[in-house]
Amino acid sequence: MAVASRSSQSFFVLHFSSLSITILLCSFLLSPLPTAAFASSGVRVEGLESRPRNLYPEILRDEAVARLRQLGEVSDADGYLERTFLSPASVKAGNLIRQWMEEAGLRTWIDYMGNVHGRVEGRNESAEALLIGSHLDTVVDAGIFDGSLGIISALAALKVLNSNGKLQAVRRPIEVIAFSDEEGVRFQSTFLGSAAVAGILPASALHISDKSGVTVEDVLKDSSLDITEENLLKVKYEPRSVWGYVEVHIEQGPVLEHTGFPLAVVKGIAGQTRLKVTVRGSQGHAGTVPMSMRQDPMPAAAEGIVLLESLCKCPEEFLSYDGHCKSISLKSLSSSLVCTVGEITTWPSASNVIPGQVTFTIDLRTIDDMGREAVIYEFSNRMHQICDQRSVSCTIERKHDANAVLCDTELSMRLKSAAYSAVTRLTGEIQDEVPVLMSGAGHDAMAMSHLTKVGMLFVRCRGGVSHSPEENVLDEDVWTSGLAVLSFIETQL
Ligand SMILES: *[C@@H]1O[C@H](CO)[C@@H](O)[C@H](O)[C@H]1NC(C)=O
Ligand SMILES: [Zn+2]
Q: Taking the CB of residue 128, how many other CB atoms lie within 10 A of it?
């Protein structure tokens, strides 16, 4: 397994440098794994093939991978993977997961929003619970790891504990939740499952309808789930009954593969703003209006788009000498800022007409909320200047805003030492520091952060590809993620 070199961890990779010493200390404090085979470290083993297979508990190894593949077969479509909120395949997947939860020794139930729960009370059932989860729904033509890996790795870890007779000995209740909706494919509303558990899903969400007019409420009732506004409130957890929420998820980006490390700790989930920029000019004949007499919104839009790219690549060049960014950390901004123009429309959109109007969207994400505001402010000023110079008018509308979610420092430290310990145990080598990444994509942890402190681990995926059947995670990285959850839970023994 290749090991990350510090210099290659640039883009997106933030460092908890002050944590590294603590991490090393923590990893010594972890109790040894139940299987004796794990105790043999210090031996440098070269290839995975040359290692004895019993180095890994059976459950973490073949079973976790086999279950991911089995779950990946549970689809509403022929020939590709699709599981939307409470579709027949989702119900079937939920039942399968429920069965696996029971095999791991957990007590199970399905709540009114279709989330599947499996719980062990441990030594003190009134202690605050550790929740571990991810989503069981998928996008259309999905990969088999997005969401499922977080559920399967948690169940694998708990099953190992159960088979070693330690499951009942956990210090606090541990509950795995397979959320019914994260992708929001069917109702265009993400986090139906986790938002309900976190208590932030408004009752109005039950009346959202899909393309054919079927509502969320209809779908739940069709699955014999007696959803009412009153029962929706029962899905919500009391903050004081919960200790924290942990989620393992594939990275869905290329950074981990680039660093050569299988796991990363997530520093936080980026905040996001969506803008709509409309540039209006003077519509005209492409053959008759001289260049000097045009008010063409297209070059203005083009200049604005290129400006946005420069601004987001090097925000420090644009913001550092301005008054409005004194209080923001340019480092955290420039290491996490991503901006995308994904949609552009023109009117009347004909090859022989100078357009009258050009509209484009901006998707802007960073973990630094104040930095996000500074970038929007700077872009807006400069965009208006461009429009003035070109004698066109522009308006910039804010369509969507979500603040960043920072992961809890203590949970992140524990997850980091668990990841470090898992990788070290699997490779038999002392490893470099576990990378710390920002998540540019939203996750259930975002909704759960309204309920409790959250922590996340990212798992390396091939080429950073996700939301595609090409999505792939190495078998050994599946084992590593299960082992990391196990190491993490062992700190709760
Ligand atoms: C169980 O947890 C509760 C809530 O945290 C705590 O008050 C109580 O002391 C715990 N009981 C034991 C035996 O540790
Ligand atoms: Zn996901």
A: 16
Superfamily of domain 6-269+405-490: Zn peptidases (3.40.630.10)
pLDDT of residue 329: 62
- What lies within 8 Å, CB to CB, of 139 at 6+ separation is 82, 146, 183, 185, 467
| CA dist., res. 444 & res. 151, Å (int) | 12
How far is residue 48's CA from residue 61's CA, in Å, rounded to a whole number?
13
Ligand 2 center–CA 165 separation, angstroms: 32
Query: Which stretch of DSSP H or E encloses residue 437?
Result: strand 436-439
Q: Is the pLDDT of residue 129 over 50?
A: yes
**192 neighbors 180 (Cβ within 8 angstroms):** yes
Which CATH number, 3.30.70.270, 3.40.50.300, 1.20.1330.10, 3.30.70.360, labels domain 271-401?
Answer: 3.30.70.360
Q: Which residue has 């095999």 as its token pair?
A: 103
Backbone angles phi, psi at 402, to 5 degrees: -140, 130
Q: Are strands 405-406 and 263-269 parallel, antiparallel or unpaired?
A: antiparallel
Q: First vs last Cα of the chain: how many Å apart?
A: 30
Question: Nearest to residue 365, comparing CAs of 441, 255, 270, 267?
Answer: 270
Q: Give the residue range(s) of CATH 3.30.70.360 domains in the chain.
A: 271-401
215 DSSP assignment: B
Q: For the ranges 25-39, 232-246, 328-342, 459-473, which has the lowest average pLDDT?
A: 25-39
Higher pLDDT, 27 or 407: 407
Ligand 1 site, residue 164, Cβ cutoff 6 A:
no
Give the pLDDT score at 483.
93
Q: Where are the alpha helices (DSSP H) in 135-228?
A: 148-163, 192-198, 216-222
Angle at 181 between CA 175 and CA 184, to 5 degrees: 155
Cβ of 124 below 6 Å from ligand 1: yes
Percent of the chain with pLDDT over 90: 77
Rounded CA separation 379/318 (Å)? 9
Centre of ligand 1 from the C-alpha of residue 454, in Å: 22
Encode 274-299: b = buried (16+ Cβ within 10 Å), e = exposed: bbebbbbbebbeeeeeeeeebbbbbe
Please report the pLDDT score of residue 473 as a whole number: 97
Does 171 sit in the ligand 1 pocket, CB within 6 Å? no
Task: Please tell me the number of the ligand nearest to residue 125's CA.
Answer: 1
**240: Cβ below 6 Å to ligand 1?**
no
Asked if residues 193 and 114 have their Cβ atoms less than 8 Å apart, the reply is yes
Residue carrying structure tokens 């020794």:
105
Please, where in the chain does CATH 3.40.630.10 lie? 6-269+405-490
**Which of ligand 1's atoms lies nearest the C-alpha of 128?**
5
Nearest in space to 110 (alpha carbons), one of 233, 191, 226, 243? 226
Tokens read off for 35: 């299987």
